[in-house]
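User: I've been going back and forth on whether these two constructs are worth ordering. Before I decide, could you fold them both?

Assistant: Sure. I'll take them in the order you sent them. The first construct and its structure tokens:
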Amino acid sequence: MKIKELAKKITELIPNEEAQKFFEPCFLSTWETTTEKIEDYKYFVITGDIPALWLRDSSAQVQHLLAFAPYSDEVKELIKGLSKTQVECILIDPYANAFNKTDSGAGHHTDITEMHPRLWERKYEIDSLCYPIRLAYQYWKVTNDSSIFTPDFKVAINNIIDLWTVEQRHENSPYTFERVDRIEEAGVLPNNGKGNPVAYTGMTWSGFRPSDDMCVYGYLVPSNMFAKVSLEQIAKIAELVYEDLELKERALNLKAEIEKGLAEFAVVDYKDLGSIYAYEVDGMGNHLFLDDANVPSLLSLPYLGAVAADDPIYLNTREFILSPENRTYYSGKYAAGIGSDHTPEDYVWHIALSMQGLTSVDENERKEILETIMNTDAGTYQMHEGFNVNNPEEFTRPWFAWSNSLFAEYLIDYFNLVEQFEKSLKN
């Protein structure tokens, strides 16, 4: 079945007429506006209004299609072709977050770091390496097609384990990053590009958040939580596909070290809420308490498989981040939710609203989130990056495919559309 045919069939299953108007544009956004087949069985997926492939964004942009892969050769080809491109990018430079289609030298080549002509940007973010693992693993689980795990994929995951191990002791890392022509922005690591000092914890260091803004303290908790999930997935791939018990053991040993670091350093008593997860820590007693709209976030931990939705520490954390105690939480006339240091004050992100709905177990909250999202699109039937909580006509990024895909995923979840689709095929 073609992707456009899928979209039409699924749309017809949605019982809410207003939601129907959103579904097809959001479901098809990545396919119609950001995807290019560049070789046989190889796809390049840009993020939208920036002509580069982010390892994170490109994975998230096709996530909503995964459940339907068994019914569409077009979806299978896209995901396998994207995975092939992502692996090629990781083998070029696992520290890079965004890549060009060719060795064009486009992007941020005045940055002081080890650039390659294929790189658009070289901000090291843990989640850039987690997302391609997650995408391939979930594709395998849905389709039972292990051919996505190529020999190059195995090299890439070994390289990822190597990198995460090096970054447990960042003082020994070769990675630095400076952007001297924009010294005041949140994209410049202090300390000659090494970032603020950290102590060993067992966790692995990250220079930047998934917002592409710099980490204040180098151990980014939601990204380390994501990494431990990725390492568990690597262990299963190693055992069941590659039959490589040494790789499995490497992955599980690193996972255990990260988990120990999280337990010892990331969980902190916060006022009257009890134990919550900090957003960033440095292993020297400093903690940053906030959450960011971009995923991985603390809000998204159950979605990523890092904790259960009813985990007590998560619930305490959720109470904190969905309150004015979190300085990136904004409330206004049209919406309340999480924004980002990456966008102006009082701007809530559609990604964060979709994620709040996807991680909620409260049907009233889920319904309210759905209505809020559909009432803040500025009449476009598309999602944006951030929008003004007091005037949704003011927004950033009119073309942001990840946000569209995530809202399509929320609609699929909210209306139980995978099950409804499968039933429709039997009738």
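The second construct, handled the same way:
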Amino acid sequence: MIVDFRKVTAPLPPLALMDSPISIVDSFRFLGTTITRDLKWEPTISSLIKKAQQRMFCLRQLRKLKLPPRMLAQFYTAIIESVLASSITVWYAGATVRDRLRLQRVVRAAEKVIGCRLPSIQDLYISRTRRGAGPITADPSHPGHGLFSPLPTGRRLRSIRTKTSRYTNSFFPSAIRLLNTK
């Protein structure tokens, strides 16, 4: 897959690796996340929503069996929330508002089935991003450690200058923004 955002692109020569031609694809799946050549996250989110809705059937069946709300909430956390939050730190900041609302709709449906409040998709993203950024800031040998440089006051981190919204919505700049808003 070739990711190229230049305004004027020239046709590329065929690629070969050890005399074997390499086919160019528009998207591929890596660890359950669909990465497209334009770095749009709609296919990933659609796949996650489909999986979560299939699991919602089981949640509804458990409610019909009169399970207590606490057990239903545990089922939701283990089976549905884990699907919705898979690699959320990768795609959430770059997701469209429409896709975020589609994900939140699944959470609201689960809230109605269970009968109690559940963490929103945004809350899941914030907690997972902070949890992922913590070890990076604490480990000087991590390749991304240098991106989390503190300001002279020591209370906040230096923001990463970005030129594109695509980079602004990637993990490191968004993690720094979240850590600065504690």
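Notes on the second construct follow. Residues 162 and 168 are 6 Å apart (CA to CA). The first strand starts at residue 16 and ends at 17.
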